[in-house]
Amino acid sequence: MTPAALATLHQHLVAALSTPPQETRRLFHGRGRCWPELEQITVDWLQGILLVALFKPLSESALIALHEMLMDLSHTPAWQQSGAHSLLLQQRYLTDSPTQWLLGEPVEHWDICEHGLHYRLDLGRKQNTGLFLDMRYGRQWVQAQAKGKRVLNLFAYTCGFSVAALAGGALQVVNLDMARAALSRGRDNHRLNQHDLSQVVFLGHDLFKSWGKVAKYGPYDLIIIDPPSFQRGSFVLSKDYPKVLRRLPELLSAEGVVLACSNEPEIGPDYLTQAMASEAPSLGFIERLENPPEFPDSQPDSALKALVFSNAV
């Protein structure tokens, strides 16, 4: 990371903090390859906390320079006026993704707001905080579509889609994820939004061993599929995604809708449309949701894919 690249990042952050977002947002998305030498750095605004994440090692001198730039940033008028009080640096490329609190009092949990809904994040303890910010438009879309519907949220993680669906008036949401701790945080997220938990089902199971449990609550009017690209011992996107898609016809209502997602850079949207045509041909492609503008990408097909399919086509 050259001094010129570091100066570019500093200028970008000063400008962003001069008019800080009212809700949680990404402030800098280097991973979209739009800024040379900054491809492996992201900066998120967590409503008072600035989370800087590195996805590739820096030389010792570059890491020191980054530290110095960030501390300089905390003394600018933009920082002071933004209401920022804490600064974290996460090294995502290391085992357990350790996080340093460069400024502020360390906390384990932090509650944030997105589109008027509340979510609890984990800071400094896990690789991911608990909410993927690039899926902001996807959650808004689900909220807008969910009224009166029975929703299945596969690979639910901390149940962000479930929170959005209940806020949008869903009759019931079934969340499935192998990680029961993530589902427990999903319960917290629903409670933060004062939702009726009797409308929410949490299944802490391996999907491929639990189709019967999933089918029991169907048929579903809306199914969300947002898997990890790779999860050791349980999911490999290129091999296992088709296995999920071929089950859709038996799980969906007559006019059911599917939101099929992938964040794997090496797999473009054509993979999902072709796989759906092969495994669930009754479902027709409707649209690809836009990604939020704070996630620019020089190669759009490598960015987040959130594709809508429907039985009603």
From TrEMBL:
InterPro entries registered for this protein in UniProt: SAM-dep_methyl-trfase, SAM-dependent_MTases_sf
An example Gene Ontology molecular-function term: methyltransferase activity
Domain spans labelled S-adenosylmethionine-dependent methyltransferase: 25-309
This protein's UniProt keywords: Methyltransferase, rRNA processing, S-adenosyl-L-methionine, Transferase
One Pfam short name: Methyltrans_SAM
Superkingdom per UniProt: Bacteria
GO biological-process terms attached to the record: methylation; rRNA processing
Protein name: Methyltransferase
